[in-house]
Amino acid sequence: MQKPEKSAKAIFYGTTEAIAVLVGTIIGAGVFTLPYVASRSGLVTVIIWLAIVCLIIIFLHLAFGEIVQRTAKDFRLPGYAGYYLGAPAKKLMLIITFFTFSFSLLIYLLLGGQFLKTLFLSFNWGNILPLDFLVVFLWLVLNVIILSKRHLTTKVNFYLSLALLFLFFFIACYALPHFKMNNLNLFQFSNKWGWLLPYGVIFFALNGMVAVPEAAKVLNRKNITKDNLKKVIIIGTLIPAFCYFLFIMAVVGVSGPNTTIEAVRGLMGILGREIVAIGAVLGFLAVTTSYLIFATYIKNSFRNDFGWSPFVGNFLVVAGPLILYFANFASLIKLISFLGGMLGGLEGAMILLILKKAKIKSDLKPAYEIPFNKLILMILFFALISGALCQTFLAH
Predict the structure, then answer these.
(1) Residue 326 — φ and ψ, nearest 5°?
(2) Do residues 235 and 250 lie in contact, with contact meaning Cβ atoms separated by under 8 Å?
(3) Tens-digit pLDDT profile for residues 345-393
(4) pTM to 2 decimals?
(5) Mean pLDDT for the chain?
(6) Which percentage of the chain shows pLDDT scores above 70?
(7) Residue 68 and residue 77: Cα distance in Å, rounded?
(8) Which of these, 185, 183, 210, 179, lies nearest to 198 by C-alpha position?
(9) What is the end-to-end Cα distance of the chain in Å, rounded?
(10) Measured between alpha carbons, how far is residue 235 from residues 17, 272, 363 in Å?
(11) Ordered structural domains, the chain, with CATH
């Protein structure tokens, strides 16, 4: 039975928190590579791809939201794959989810430690704490939040996401007086495949499918009707896309050809230590919010999709990235780019297959239905495969 609707104020707060779950997950490590890509592939090219990929991602997010609403049981993507496509699909998604998200959590820890280090350097405190200590300390704090039993993860993510959006706009406004049109590379490509490069990178940066079930849970916990999920998904995807546009324009317009791959360091000589410190805080918030949602997603998937005990699920989520960190994996950034690109393509393809089956044998009637036919299926499959290939082979 549908839960009773709450007051307008409660609905606003609940939907805002659900939107923050999506925004906080989407705006992660990928955003800091976008200005560098724009400086190499051309600003116009990046803006075109940003619009195209945003539409694709919104469609996939809505598709996943429809799957969630069509299913009575509480699953994550591996569970939905098993429920609608069978055991082999579920096992495949387990392997992909475990390895990809373990490495993703590791890269967020590494980036979080680097941003903390940059922050300390901006205050001339760089030699006080070693990077290893910062990474382990960050790992400890984040996992205390994740293991909380009072929905602390979504609460913390909500406030961190608000701070994240504020800092995005602050840096953009601060950089405006230093903006120069001749710094913008509009069309020139660094190589003949440069026009393809932004597709995979933007797809990786905008992909927030892991947060769709979490956003739906927030609405359910707040007793807000499920028809609000469509609005949450659309707004929660458009906000990061708009922030990316502002961030790209601000950084490239200031740094020009000197734009660095992590965006922040290239601003130091022009905007000074203070703005670099703010940029480091921005980066830290971005990777922290993503870490919280990603870890919660994996934990819930282990428990709900595979029926593992809370101890086993928590242990794998907590210990996985730290074990990988001390294993000293080489070329970690390239590995995560490869896994992220392939994960996005495989996730999207799996969601399309699940939705096709769910429309036939679903448990419940969803609050909304997206258009779906063979032509849309073929176009999206081609786009997803192209995105995976671009991210894998052209990102570096």
Answers:
(1) -80, -5
(2) no
(3) 778 888 988 998 998 888 788 999 988 777 888 888 777 776 666 666 6
(4) 0.81
(5) 79
(6) 82
(7) 9
(8) 185
(9) 51
(10) 12, 34, 27
(11) 8-394 (1.20.1740.10)
